[in-house]
Structure formats: structure tokens, C-alpha cells
Amino acid sequence: MSTVLIVVIIVVVVALAAGLLFVGARQRAGKARRAERLRSDASGHRQEAAAHTSRADDLLPQAEAHRDEAARHLSEAEQLEAQAERSKRFASRHEEQASEREGELEQL
Q1: Over the range 56-87, which residues count as b (16 or more CB within 10 Å of their CB) and which as e?
Q2: What are phi and psi of 2, to 5 degrees?
Q3: What is the DSSP letter of 108?
């Protein structure tokens, strides 16, 4: 083999090695950027999760209080409906009695 051929082979091998090192470095840098972006995204999502958990913890007692109040209102509504039904029955009875009295009045 000639010296020129050996030098060309060495130059080609060194160039390929340098190219592979460059490509590897770019890939590592890209992976590092992606890893940092994913860490940042994960941190942001954890912060959002913590905020939503805190909000839920604040809302649950309020929801329970409203549920209790709604139960109380339902009980009161049922009582008022029963009173309204009694009042309707009383009104009907008094209307009948008024009609009877008017009938008696007409017979006088």
C-alpha cells in the first residue's frame, strides 16, 4: 500500500469518527433539552395538581354545608306542602259550609 492511500484512509477514518462524535453530541444535547423541558412540564403539572387539590379541599366543606342546607330546605318544603294541603282542605270545607248557609238563608 502506498503512503498516500494510508493517509487517505486515516483521514477518512478520523473524519468519520469526528462526524460520529458530532452527531452523538447533538443527540445528547437534544435529549438533555427534551429532558429539561419534560422536567419543567412535570413540575408545572404537579403545581397545577396541588392547586386543584387545594381548591377541592376548600370546596368539599362548602358542598357539604349546601347539602345540609338543601336537606333542611327539603324538610321545610315538605312541611309547608303538608300545611298547604291542610289549608286547601279547610278552605274546601268552609266553602261547603258557606254554600250550605247561603242555601239556608235562601229558604228563610
Answers
A1: eeeeeeeeeeeeeeeeeeeeeeeeeeeeeeee
A2: -90, 160
A3: -
In the predicted structure, residue 11 carries a pLDDT above the cut 90: no
- Alpha carbon distance 70, 49 (integer Å): 30
The residue behind cell 228563610 is 108
Residue 77, CB-side half-sphere exposure with 13 Å CA sphere: 6
pTM exceeds 0.70, yes or no: no
Amino acid at 99: S
59-68 — which CB contacts under 8 Å span 24+ positions?
A: none
27-80: per-residue pLDDT in tens? 999 999 999 999 999 999 999 999 999 999 999 999 999 999 999 999 999 999
